[in-house]
Design goal:
Blueprint lengths: L2 H7 L1 H7 L13 H4 L10 E6 L8 E7 L5 E7 L12 H4 L2 H5 L7 E3 L8 E3 L1 H18 L1 E4 L5 E12 L5 H14 L1 E6 L4
Parallel strand pairs: 7-8
Antiparallel strand pairs: 1-2, 2-3, 4-5, 6-7
């Protein structure tokens, strides 16, 4: 690069000789920053979602790119939300890491009873094991009537303790599921 070309590329020179004497626009822009585009422009579609971290229910816009494989490129607050008006807390703003982080476990890990190590299971096998155990616990703890003959139709063999990272919709569905199973002990971390 010649001296004259270097001087013209120098932001102070552009600031003093150009239409931007305060250096707040093009004069301060480098060649690299001029070529940058927002991550959201590379997205093929935008999906509306809700932040998964607490029960406030802040709306999010999830920007998804479909090529070469479907992946999330950015998550931002939704300015149309009457709850958060486009703002997210630090955890919500970093929720992209929840779905794209390298530490995210992508398989089911299982340690059998009395086992000393973990083994990988496919999702269908793990789900079948969960269903079998829930139905067995429900059957063993089922109470149809009390000592006076009153109808109970409940199980004392199942309880649920939900986490505060679930949103309102997930907690609602979990409550419906456990109530339908006959469980009485349905609680959430946020209330404790």
């Amino acid at each position: 690069m010649g001296v004259r070309r270097w001087i013209r590329a120098w932001p102070v020179y552009r600031q003093l000789t150009g239409p931007d004497p305060l250096g707040r626009g093009k004069a301060a822009e480098s060649a690299r920053s001029a070529g940058l585009v927002p991550r959201t422009e590379r997205a093929d579609r935008v999906v509306d979602s809700v932040c998964p971290y607490c029960a406030v229910g802040c709306a999010q816009r999830v920007f998804v790119r479909e090529e070469p494989h479907e992946h999330v490129v950015q998550i931002e607050g939704n300015p149309n939300s009457p709850i958060s008006r486009g703002r997210l807390c630090p955890k919500g703003a970093a929720s992209k890491q929840l779905v794209t982080g390298p530490q995210r476990v992508q398989k089911v890990r299982y340690r059998p009873p009395y086992g000393t190590g973990w083994q990988d299971l496919d999702l269908d096998t793990a789900m079948d094991m969960v269903v079998d155990r829930v139905l067995e616990a429900r059957r063993k703890g089922w109470q149809d009537r009390d000592a006076k003959g009153r109808t109970l139709r409940r199980t004392m063999g199942i309880a649920s303790l939900g986490g505060a990272t679930l949103d309102n919709e997930e907690n609602y569905l979990i409550k419906k599921l456990f109530t339908a199973l006959g469980a009485l002990q349905v609680e959430n971390q946020a209330r404790i």
